[in-house]
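Minutes, project check-in

Agenda point 3 was the complex the collaborators sent over. CS summarized: two entities, 565 residues total, and the question is how they sit relative to each other. Sequences were read into the notes so everyone works from the same version.
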Amino acid sequence: MDDIITTEKLTKKYKDVLAVSEISLNVRKGEIYGFLGLNGAGKTTTIRMLLGMINPTKGKAFINRKEVHSGSTDLWKEIGYLVEIPYSYPDLTVRENLEIIRQLRLMNDNNVVASIMDKLRLTQYANRKAKNLSLGNAQRLGLAKALIHNPNILILDEPANGLDPAGIYEIRELLIDLAKNKGVTIFISSHILGEISRFSTRIGIIHNGKLIQEINTPQLEQLCQKRLKINTRNNNLAKSVLHQAGIIAKDTTDNMLEIQNETIINNPESIATLLVNNQVPPSLLNVVEEDLESYFLRTIGIKGE
Amino acid sequence: MKNISIALWTEYMKIRKSKIFFTTLIIFTIIPMMISLMMFVSKNPDIASKLGLIGTKSKMFGENDWKGYLGLMSQLIASIGLLGFGFVTAWVFGREHSDRTMKDILALPVGRPSIVFAKFIIIFLWCLILTVVTFSVGILIGQVIDIPGWSPALFSDFSKSFFITYFLTLFLCSPVAYLAGYSRGIIAPLGFVLLTMIFVQFIGLVGLGPFFPWAIPGLYSVAKDEPGFQLHLSSYIILASTFVFGYWATLRWWQHADHH
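CS then shared the predicted structure for the full assembly.
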């Protein structure tokens, strides 16, 4: 597949602060690349470098195999973007704000403004001044500005900010449709793995400016740890029984027992048999899969194994 | 050229609905009205004596005729223009930061140089409107209060001087535009404008006004022949260089600075 977005050891240093450190990644055509990291991890700095808004201290960024720089006007024709919280001209209406972007994107078709307002459910707010929009509708306006010219490449920084659950679902479906049916390449940042894993094809995790992991989303499930949770009427006795059988069980914060042994997790019935035979029948036996947020926090070293 | 005209249209859209545009229009209408009031008071000493401070100030005209009145109007566009045009420039460039819309105009098919150029054009046009308003209101009210000594030749000289002063004052807007970018806002460039107005007073006192860009439009408007007030060719070169340097710095900042 064609690489659409590529970075080579992209680095940004501010005096003593290394905001982004040698990030090398590539995003292929039609891919939704989730760029995941905590606040301050370096996501926005990377995105701004991809858009020629910040000059890299070292390394290069390429889009469509062309090196990105501040004057890449031809390149920007193909790119729609949203960086951080979108703001618009407060005294202008939704329609006028979009009209400005339509003009600056050199689009002759007058209907695109109505069309994008319709797509993002902004038509009823067309004549409302941007300063009077709710946070969610301001976000929709930001997305409308990014999508107005049907770009081939979308670079979106936390696009779900401020949207309600229905809005998040709607935008997610829209992005999936763009990638799947129109071959749009999407680079999207977020700090919520659970959200981004629902539609990304690949995820890159950035922490302290470094790209620490890249995973294909289908692999994610395999990487999430599983645990067998056990509860009995006498957990101390159960723990002792398990220990005698050579099985390590840990106490959990919710007063249960937990086993991380993969063989046992795949055969929980063996534990049931063992406990029943030793007069401590389990009242609960549950294979729990680590949630994505825990996996993310474990990967960046904030939450222990 | 197409990109510049598009950028110009978008800049027009941005100011068309702003309160600032109409506020500046009102201010530049009120100022000549105040000068006319002073002239009226000066022409009528019995009213002047009852008004204390205004009565004293009104003596600044020298002679209570069109020559004195228009002379003050010329000085006005140099001093109020310096502040007003500086404010307009600070707003046109600084608002992208205060409204946080800067990032929306950095990665577009219409390049940054076209946007910067269009912003300067809109500033020139905006300031021209303010100048024409001040000029028209001043002349109109002068006619209404029936100032003596009107002549077509005087009007012609004044018009030339007034609009050249406007033009010279405009040359000082580019450093303000640069500061609006560098400081990412409106406050610092406005502070800079006020600072230059203070410096003009001190530098004028030591006779270096013809070599200080911010004093040159004011000196042109008073057109005095005394030493320390005469403008030289070098004065105009300094003024033009200030504009070119400010424009270059603004453009360079837009193109090469890190935009956070």
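Noted in discussion: Chain B touches chain A through 29 residues (CB under 8 Å).
Follow-up: revisit at the next meeting once the mutant set is ready.
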